[in-house]
Design brief:
2 domains; alpha/beta; 5 strands
Amino acid sequence: MRIHVGTDHAGLEFSRDLQQHLRDAGHEVVDHGPQSYDPVDDYPSFCINTALAVVHDQQHGIETLGVVFGGSGNGEQMAANKVRGARAALVWNHDTALLARQHNDANLIAIGARQHSAEVVLSLVDAFIAEPFSGEERHARRIAQLAEYELTGGIAGHVIDVYPS
């Protein structure tokens, strides 16, 4: 599987360790940066580029997922989710890693590098990668509604409130 990885300064060491771990497991890894430590770098471009690559690959039939890191994972998740087609889940334990795939068919996860040990990070990513989407109708329906809203600003058969600018 191809795994795209992006981070900021807070997750740079985790990112390097993870990339080697994934390569050792036989995955193709694409690093979206940064390439060197800069304590004041900004995460949005690294995470957006990671999400863009994941969505692009999936649209072209390539089996791929992504991982973004930062201090908490919150901003990184928000940045990745700005990309149409990205479904980035904030993961903080084993259950959230599994449910991100089972119920949400998440194609990226965000992890707070300052929140976990390297061992925990590797186990969370491994769990996420190994877990398939359940394919259950209710979950597929909800994912389709999110995609519909992303494209049209509405969800057929549901009221979406509109507020004046």
